[in-house]
């Protein structure tokens, strides 16, 4: 790891003095809205970003959105059963506690959860659009918790003027039914989008030792509005609502009769924003509120969990239209659960430099003042050097921090004396652009965390009687390979491979695949019929200490098939088969995963 860190630092130092190249930066069109504080084209981003367009998200070959994201390099997940049960997304070996998730600018991580992360268990692609995954420590951009990266999700957006809509119905295995309705409107000044979905499934037993099905039902609605009030002033809002019920199993089986374990969850989020352009300076002021209210029922006994977050933020940017641009801003956040309350105030600044047509630098700094701890200073340096028109070198060095969650500070499970975790992250990547959208990319990465807080089921230090939060050190490094090649006008090949060596106190981190490979073949079979085959192979996975001795966590291969047939100009029929060869495996020891499952549906636009 020392060698990788030294290599990345040397690259940053050397490339900062790179000579100017007599060429124009090529235009890839694709914009990243997360890598820097201001929108940046991908070829000018020094950070590693995966961008998934809305069409790819809509046609995802898996029901759960988190499982679909694992086809990208560096991303893996583990789940505790069928749709609706807990599912954790990991970036480069680090789980949900280190991955803030934003939906339309609303931070949807759960303030009342033990780790403070987002549960992908019940989130599907219904009503969602473009997704960006930003990798590496990003506390200088997003504050605490952004140690592994950030997932930024957009809901439905209008793509053309006028009023349009779509409706979708689907059904399949485990008596699963889903309906989605989306409406959009666009004028020269207004963008409006609304979607609502309903998902119901009888599921299967979450516990590998169980026999009864664990069902799930959920209603989700998203709203987005932006109106250009005058030529220089715009205002808007985004809103999210989720109401779900998910059955689960007590660890080790169905639990005592009458097998009534389930979670009820209600999530509400709203973000109001204004934008003002005053010459070369732009301003954005936003207020967001998020609330998650969930109750866990076991043997007829309810256990409530409630978390709230209120946030106000200001972002400004001064663009000279030349070789540099300066962004700045501040935010104030309050979080609380049923027992405690904290507040965090942050100030940040970012300088973007383009000393040559071929070189872009981003220097970011942020200071966070946490009500329970001393201030934390985070920094990031990133560069993108277009060595040639078709060759990009990226490098970044950044640090991050993560404050203990409210649950981790509670003496019952945790320790009120816990201090924030601190981290440092390095990236070094090379991307070769091919014809069109084709590319080949390799990225080396490294992350270290001091005083990582984790749950130790054998600890008796706290008052719970069945485990406590403790601290350890984390080291993770590896390499990501990915690419896209157009074979001919009918076939396109996508591939990704990640090697991850992640250790906690010198021991392999649990549930992190050492080798993760994905291969996808897209085929335009006829003018009206297209299909896709996705193959994923994972190996070198260490079960957690909670896994039973007979667990099935280990190497496995999954094959998914999906296709779409254009029935008319406005109606598509689709088929999705997950786990085609009925692989028997587990991602969390003692919890089932889906066998072969098939789903069919219709999608109509109007």
Automatic annotation (TrEMBL):
Signal peptide range: 1-22
Domain of life assignment: Bacteria
Membrane topology: Multi-pass membrane protein
Domain spans labelled TonB-dependent receptor plug: 43-150
CDD domains associated with the record: ligand_gated_channel
Domain TonB-dependent receptor-like beta-barrel: 175-580
Gene Ontology BP terms: siderophore transmembrane transport
Classification via SUPFAM superfamilies: Porins (SSF56935)
GO molecular function: siderophore uptake transmembrane transporter activity
This protein's record includes keyword Protease: no
InterPro entries from the UniProt entry: Beta-barrel_TonB, Beta-barrel_TonB_sf, Plug_dom, Plug_dom_sf, TonB-dep_rcpt-like, TonB_box_CS, TonB_rcpt_CS
Keyword set includes Transferase: no
Subcellular location: Cell outer membrane
Motif TonB C-terminal box, chain ranges: 589-606
UniProt motif (TonB box) ranges: 30-36
Keywords (A to Z) from UniProt: Cell outer membrane, Ion transport, Membrane, Signal, TonB box, Transmembrane, Transmembrane beta strand, Transport
Listed GO CC annotations: cell outer membrane
Family membership: Belongs to the TonB-dependent receptor family.
Protein's name according to its UniProt entry: Vitamin B12 transporter BtuB
Gene source species: Roseovarius tolerans
